Amino acid sequence: MISVEQALQLVATEANVFTTEDVALLHSNGRIIAQDVVADRDMPPFDRATMDGIAIDSSVFQGNGQRFLIEDIQPAGHPQKQLQDPLNALEVMTGAMLPQGTDAVIRYEDIAISDDTATVHLEEVKPKQNVHLQGADEKAGEVLVCSGSRITPAIVATMASVGMASVEVYRLPRIAVCSTGDELVDVEQVPEAHQIRRSNSYMLLAALQQEGITANAYHLPDEPEAMTQQISAMLAYHEVLLFSGAVSKGKFDHLPGVLASRGMQTIFHNIAQKPGKPLLFGKMPQGTIVFGFPGNPVSTWVCYQLYFRHWLDRSQGLDTAKVQATLSRPLTFKPALTHHVLVKLNKEQGFLKAVPVSTSTSGDMVNLMQGEGLISLPANEEYFEAGRVFDVLTF
To answer: In this model, does residue 115 exceed pLDDT 90?
Structure first.
């Protein structure tokens, strides 16, 4: 068996940054951008009012009670107007261009208007008051978003502001998710006493959807010839195969042998960890990546999060993000294995705490729902005190 650290390194070596594609702006959220986003003009592109009120020349302001005749109104989205008399004012709306001849905005809340005259109820008005200056955020030509960033709704807004109707992103891999086992029936079926419904494949398909990937679903029976035929069909199109089950030492765990017969290079099979010891990772002759997850739900989920996401992130030029949290209660684990613990995350007095989820077995799907992240306890220790800081891989 290899260590978790060795396995992660081997997974990373097989990462392959995919080619890019152009997608519509509204289809880019969550994708990894493959180009810099550059400001096409100053941001904001003009001095703009940040409040509804009146625009004046602050140099003529003399104090509380001063009156200004209102010459005109400057709406947002209209060409810039000019103050004709520096002793007067223009009404101005939020987001409008600051009129020529003015340098400050006084809020409606600080004035009283009667007969087209505004009386100011302030002791002081400063230059640039309530004004967002041209280029204060960014100058034309500045990089706003760097290539390799994950696109968020705020980044979508930024790209829209610079006129990007489409965006270049890294292409997502074509993935097949394949459940295995004669004991599994589909979700619509009523299982017999000896059967259960497929759930791991739905869990993996949903997790991939969160990555923006729509995968294809398959199911393999416990019969080598049928498995070989279906895998051959999957290899014709997909770049990644995710299997759940049939990778352990059971008499019906035919998957490793079938994949080997199709020429798979086994990079590793078995890791010194719990759960997920029988994890299989390999590569087909045409380059297709294979992850064979153990069939128990917790094992499948842990291995997906820890290893597949590591591969996917590296294939998109990313480092897998983690947070730090303190262990809420002591844990003991004696076997010389890395122990992956599902945790809930609570914030107490400004500090993040990792609260271990009590799972009965690696097949404990109900408690799996409580997990918000994963901590890995080192294999060379047995006791882990409360308050110890761990990296948390969040889900």
So the answer is: yes
